[in-house]
Write a structure and sequence with these properties.
Elements lengths: L1 E10 L9 E10 H4 L4 H11 L19 E4 L2 E4 L16 E4 L6 E3 L2 E2 L2 H9 L20 H11 L6 H4 L2 H5 L5 H12 L8 H7 L14 H5 L6 H13 L2
Parallel strand pairs: 1-5
Antiparallel strand pairs: 1-2, 3-4, 3-5, 6-7
Helix pairs in contact: 3-7, 4-7, 7-10
The structure holds iron/sulfur cluster and FE2/S2 (inorganic) cluster.
């Protein structure tokens, strides 16, 4: 038996005068296929069969690259890891898809992430303080040392957390939860030597770690289940005790 799934997709084309608006699409899906259909599968099918101009980002297709984050039924999610069946779409309701909030939109579901990645570069996303060949020899970590940063290493830099943060909406210089989680990962890596350069960037009342107001939207948004606020709190302790 076939089921008709309705989608309401936010469209925006900078070359048209139409402005941002929603368009409805329908997809006929068999009961059997519905169990496996992700929002990304649906978008690809709609693009192939209904409207080739529908624009969205995706790469890995399995929750590793972070490129397919978007607002799906009022929650930031990864399109490739969101099954349509889990959105409980009944007759008369629809899957609503919009670009990540708080980021400028380039086209349809594609956002401009330049500022987001600029913040990531600011936190120095690498092990710092090792400059000689000897320095770069293999270094082992104890299970405890790895455990300290393990949760933060799960971050795929998808932007779902930062996009949901009201502080980030208000202050475009605030590093945001993703950059702060990743700062913790690099700062607290047992192989990192230079702590002070990164702490100098993080120790800022408005734009750094102290800008976090613990709204908790970011925890709710993270598709990897990372407790972003707990990590930011831990990062605050690292900054205080530096
Ligand atoms: S912390 Fe979670 S939501 Fe934020 S960028 Fe990393 S994976 Fe995405
Ligand atoms: S396409 Fe890579 S996370 Fe979805």
């Amino acid at each position: 038996m076939m089921k008709k799934i309705a989608f309401r997709i936010n469209r925006y084309d900078p070359e048209s005068n139409e402005g941002s608006h929603f368009e409805k699409f329908y997809l006929d899906v068999s009961e059997q296929k519905l169990g496996e259909l992700t929002v990304l599968d649906a978008l690809r099918e709609l693009k192939e069969e209904r409207d080739g101009s529908l624009t969205f980002r995706h790469t890995c297709g399995h929750g590793s690259c972070g490129s397919c984050a978007m607002l799906i039924n009022e929650k930031n999610r990864l399109a490739c890891k969101t099954h349509v069946v889990d959105l409980e779409v009944d007759e008369g309701s629809f899957v609503e898809i919009s670009p990540l909030p708080g980021f400028p939109v380039i086209k349809d579901l594609v956002v401009d992430d330049e500022r987001f990645f600029d913040h990531d570069s600011q936190i120095m996303p690498f092990i710092s303080g090792k400059n000689t060949v000897d320095d770069l020899e293999e270094e082992r970590q104890t299970p405890g040392e790895l455990d300290r940063i393990m949760e933060a290493t799960e971050c795929i830099n998808c932007g779902a957390c930062t996009s949901s943060c009201p502080t980030y909406w208000d202050n475009e210089d605030y590093l945001g939860p993703a950059a702060l989680v990743r700062a913790f990962r690099w700062l607290e890596d047992s192989r990192n030597v230079d702590r002070n350069s990164r702490i100098g960037i993080l120790d800022d009342e408005k734009d750094g770690v102290w800008g976090c107001n613990k709204v908790f939207n970011c925890v709710e948004a993270c598709p990897k289940g990372i407790d972003t606020v707990a990590i930011i709190e831990e990062l605050k302790r690292s900054v205080i005790t530096a």
